[in-house]
Write a structure and sequence with these properties.
about 65% helix; globular; single chain
Amino acid sequence: MGPAHPDLPFTLANLGALYTEMGLYVEAEDRYKRSLRILEKMNPVPHAQMARVYHELGKVYLRNKGKISAESAGSRCGERPAQSYA
């Protein structure tokens, strides 16, 4: 699968989910962010898949005990501020 393949962002998001379940949060964050960059290039208007990836990235940040701001992950999605669950 090359860098222009339309399924690449979905594959990266799935890898992010796998790494999250394994507790490999840095790797998960990287895959989710790569997925989002590709999705934003494919369609800059927020859409359901992008929202899902932002949601999953926020879960990574929460599981990582707030070492990285969970608010920054969700604030773009839907153009409303993220809520704090801490």
